[in-house]
């Protein structure tokens, strides 16, 4: 009896050690894919700027070149998704949650190339989409690929797919801790929690981040002042900001679903959708470039006090509408970065007003911009810990943890009271309902 028990324990240990080794492979491959993804996006953006009409002094191409580029990129992105892998549309995170529950398939042989190339084109077009959704879905598909290649049991699906998702988020933002927290918090109902599965997350996220730092570069993704926080008497302002962001998160989720429903019901063909989106992006981008794109440049300009409060309000409203339209069109791309950008804009607007009315309590309005990142993430994704970790890792503002906690928890509680569910759970239910019909 003792011999059988010892043999069984050795078998369990061997399986667990294999899991950690496979997690390392998932992290390394995900890191390489994400690095290539980011490098190609950066190169295309440089190429687009180099051949812009302003650089070439060709006035007649001021509208035609950006429109043509955006149209082709959007059309090809939609074509790839609709033709070969419909589950690659949007961020794909809801698909990963469904796969962890065993109710959605992972077809990595189709999804990996479609998501990679489709997202490169959609993100290069000027649409308001983020790279984190694609990298998370690609990472999770790498986890399934490793499981299939090494012929592991179906029970290994959950930890390896989860590890890939953590690695994907870590490599998108140079934020390994946020990648780990995201899987544990956002996917808590889907992730099988034990010592070795958490260790696998850590190995996958850490190794992916290491590869990205080697191939792309390290440091915070968002360049912003490193703040200290000493005005404890003004902590109530962050609670007030959290309440505001709770309402914004509720509105954003409702508009996102309505946008998806609109594109589904209208049954527009690929060319029509691409033409309309390209026209909108070209016109808006020509006059107000900060209103299009993922938002990294916009965040930099906003936090440098480059805009008036009136323009910040207009910028927020425009990016809110364009973000839900971009996602609703069905092209591959994430919502984290557009959301974070909205949080920064609204936080900066709030901070500017707070500084005007309470100058003694506000050290710098940009502190509220960082808090806005955490708060809007908490109110839409309903993952306050992930929002907190992302905001700190992306800006290196570790000393702002206290006000960020107040903002994030207030936003998440407020949006829950309003009846706002986590956006990815809503999206997954929507997919399942459509498939049933």
TrEMBL record:
Q: How does it sit in the membrane?
A: Multi-pass membrane protein
**Subcellular localization, as worded in the UniProt entry:** Membrane
Which keywords does the record carry? Chloride, Ion transport, Membrane, Transmembrane, Transmembrane helix, Transport
User: What CDD domains does this protein map onto?
Assistant: EriC (cd01031)
Q: Give the transmembrane ranges.
A: 20-43, 63-81, 112-130, 160-183, 195-215, 235-256, 268-288, 308-328, 335-354, 366-388, 400-419
Q: Which GO terms describe its molecular function?
A: voltage-gated chloride channel activity
The answer to keyword Ribonucleoprotein applying to this record is: no
Q: List, alphabetically, the InterPro entries matched.
A: Cl-channel_core, ClC
GO CC, alphabetical = plasma membrane
What is the protein's given name?
H(+)/Cl(-) exchange transporter ClcA
């Amino acid at each position: 009896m003792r011999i059988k028990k010892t043999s069984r324990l050795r078998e369990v240990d061997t399986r667990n050690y294999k899991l950690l080794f496979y997690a390392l492979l998932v992290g390394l491959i995900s890191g390489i894919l994400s690095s290539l993804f980011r490098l190609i996006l950066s190169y295309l953006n440089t190429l687009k700027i180099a051949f812009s009409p302003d650089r070439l002094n060709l006035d007649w191409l001021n509208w035609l070149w950006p429109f043509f580029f955006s149209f082709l990129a959007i059309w090809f992105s939609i074509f790839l998704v609709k033709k070969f892998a419909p589950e690659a549309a949007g961020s794909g995170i809801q698909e990963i949650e469904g796969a962890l529950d065993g109710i959605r398939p992972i077809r990595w042989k189709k999804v990996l190339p479609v998501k990679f190339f489709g997202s490169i084109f959609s993100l290069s077009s000027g649409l308001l989409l983020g790279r984190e959704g694609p990298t998370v879905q690609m990472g999770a598909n790498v986890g399934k690929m490793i499981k299939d290649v090494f012929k592991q049991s179906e029970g290994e699906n959950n930890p390896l797919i989860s590890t890939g998702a953590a690695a994907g988020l870590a490599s998108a933002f140079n934020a390994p801790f946020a990648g780990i927290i995201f899987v544990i918090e956002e996917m808590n109902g889907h992730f099988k929690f034990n010592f070795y599965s958490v260790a696998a997350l850590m190995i996958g996220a850490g190794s992916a981040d290491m590869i990205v730092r080697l191939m792309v570069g390290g440091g915070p993704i968002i360049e912003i002042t490193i703040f200290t926080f000493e005005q404890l008497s003004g902590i109530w302002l962050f609670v007030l900001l959290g309440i505001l962001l709770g309402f914004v998160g509720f509105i954003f989720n409702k508009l996102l679903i309505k946008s998806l429903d609109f594109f589904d019901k209208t049954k527009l063909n690929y060319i029509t959708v691409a033409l309309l989106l390209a026209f909108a992006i070209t016109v808006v981008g020509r006059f107000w470039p900060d209103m299009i794109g993922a938002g990294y440049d916009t965040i930099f300009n906003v936090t440098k006090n480059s805009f008036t409060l009136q323009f910040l309000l207009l910028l927020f409203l425009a990016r809110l509408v364009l973000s839900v339209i971009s996602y609703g069109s069905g092209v591959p791309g994430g919502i984290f970065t557009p959301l974070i950008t909205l949080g920064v804009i609204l936080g900066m607007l709030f901070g500017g007003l707070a500084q005007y009315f309470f100058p003694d309590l506000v050290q710098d309005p940009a502190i509220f911009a960082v808090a806005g990142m955490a708060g809007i993430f908490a109110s839409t994704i309903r993952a306050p810990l992930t929002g907190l970790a992302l905001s700190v890792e992306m800006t290196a503002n570790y000393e702002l943890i206290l006000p960020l906690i107040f903002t994030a928890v207030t936003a998440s509680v407020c949006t829950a009271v309003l009846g706002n569910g986590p956006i990815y759970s809503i999206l997954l239910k929507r997919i399942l309902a459509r498939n049933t019909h």
